[in-house]
Amino acid sequence: MIIDVNGNSITQVRGGTGIFTGRLPFVWVGNNISNPGVNPNLPGHLQSFDLNAMVPDFKWPQVWTTNIAIDHLFDNGILGTFEFIYGKDINAIFVRNADLVTPVRTLPDGRPYFGGFGNNELNPDGGAGAYVIDNTDEGYNYSFTAQLRKNFENGVKVNLSYTFLKAKNVMKTTEIASVLWQNNPVKGDPNKPQLSDAEFGKRHRIIGGLTYKKEWSENYSTSIGVFLEIAEGNRFTAAGGNRYSFIYAGDVNGDGQAGNDLIYIPRNQNEINFDPYVNSSGQTITAADQWTTFNKFISQDDYLNSNRGSIADRFGEINPWFSNIDLRILQDFSFMMGNNKQTFQLSIDVLNVANLINSEWGVRKIANALATSPLELVRFDSQGAPVFNYKANLTETFSDDLGQFSRWSMQVGLRYMF
């Protein structure tokens, strides 16, 4: 829907709303067939190690999405736009383990404990679990964007925009249905995952562009473009790279799955237990030593330090701000062939050009793998409280990303237009 407010194309309001249905990854459906449970008639190495299923009334993913925007042309020729988009899950996806027992006790930080490996199954058959794909209506996202654009008579075109994004869901994404449950970071009951940040999308994003075209003659023209991005977050990759969860190394909640329990962020030394250990140099690292270094690690991280006394959120940590500048140069060479104009266009693209100028510019940050899993579960004490080792000995959560996004690159192209 588009409404021209005054009938003079100066101000328009546009928007729409609708319910959209999509498909889930078909591998999750295939998992129900490929992992139907143990077949006693097959050799042991061919028997399924887990069971996958869906609820009888399972529905395809469905979301209600609404957007509304206002475009206004100011007297000075600047076109301004403000747009708001909201999405609400109607039938999102989550996975539960139907073979998980009820909690046997509660840990000191308030989370349930399910008995540990071998005691966490309703049917103690040694399998990984009975994973059921189900629907939930939790989850939402919204974003708003403000943009300014102007075309000048001298050939200069500029644009600048800012976007804020917030997205919440109940599960991280992965390929295999059973792994949706096994690898989903949780702070409470893994069969009732809590709403938390999605791993995709930059929270704050500023983008801008400036292009200029100079026509030297009918046959020669040069175009130059500079494109800027400043954002909090990063590009998502298979290993993360945008948002992070702080998890324990070990099965703290006793659900039979290690590496999915979000850490409790202690306020002081009385809220965490450490065991001494001997490092690779033969030095004994005491509990007090470990607390001192771990406390410094918490203090240097804004998210951890501001959330002391609580269990970390799934994907609560977001990548730091970064900046990226790209440069494009186009040179057109034209000539007439008969009655038709022929053009060769030479293009030069320099991505992350600031890094070309200075090797310290345009470098992004990513979280150290040890930083997001800093505490190793050693044992439970006589009161049932977990006891840890802090061996990471890190001073910072983030370090320079040495990958492609932090390096400059160039490509040269030639195009023939007729």
Low-confidence runs of at least 5 consecutive residues: none
- Beta-strand percentage range: 35-45%
Radius of gyration from the alpha-carbon trace, in angstroms: 28 Å
Global outline: globular
Give the N-terminus to C-terminus distance in angstroms.
38 Å
Described by strand count, sense and barrel closure, the largest sheet is: 14 strands, mixed
Global mean pLDDT = 92
How many individual β-strands?
A: 26
Category by helix and strand content: mainly beta
Helix content: under 10%
Q: What is the number of helices? A: 5
What can be said about this structure in brief?
This protein is mostly beta strands and 418 residues long. The protein is built from 5 helices and 26 strands.
Keywords:
14-stranded mixed beta sheet; mainly beta; 5 helices; 418 residues; 43% strand; 26 strands
Model description:
The structure is a single chain. The two termini are 38 Å apart. The chain is built from five helices and 26 strands. The chain has a domain at 1-201. The radius of gyration is 28 Å and the shape is globular. It has helices at 26-34, 177-182, 287-300, 302-306, 353-357; strands spanning 2-4, 11-21, 51-54, 62-73, 79-97, 105-106, 112-113, 130-136, 140-151, 156-169, 196-197, 204-215, 220-232, 243-244, 264-265, 277-278, 284-285, 310-311, 317-318, 321-337, 340-351, 365-367, 376-380, 386-389, 398-400, 409-417. It is 9% helix and 43% strand. 24% of the residues are buried. The strands form seven sheets. Strands 1, 2, 3, 4, 5, 8, 9, 10, 11, 12, 13, 20, 21 and 26 form a 14-stranded mixed β-sheet that branches. Strands 6-7 form a two-stranded antiparallel sheet. It has 418 residues and is mainly beta.
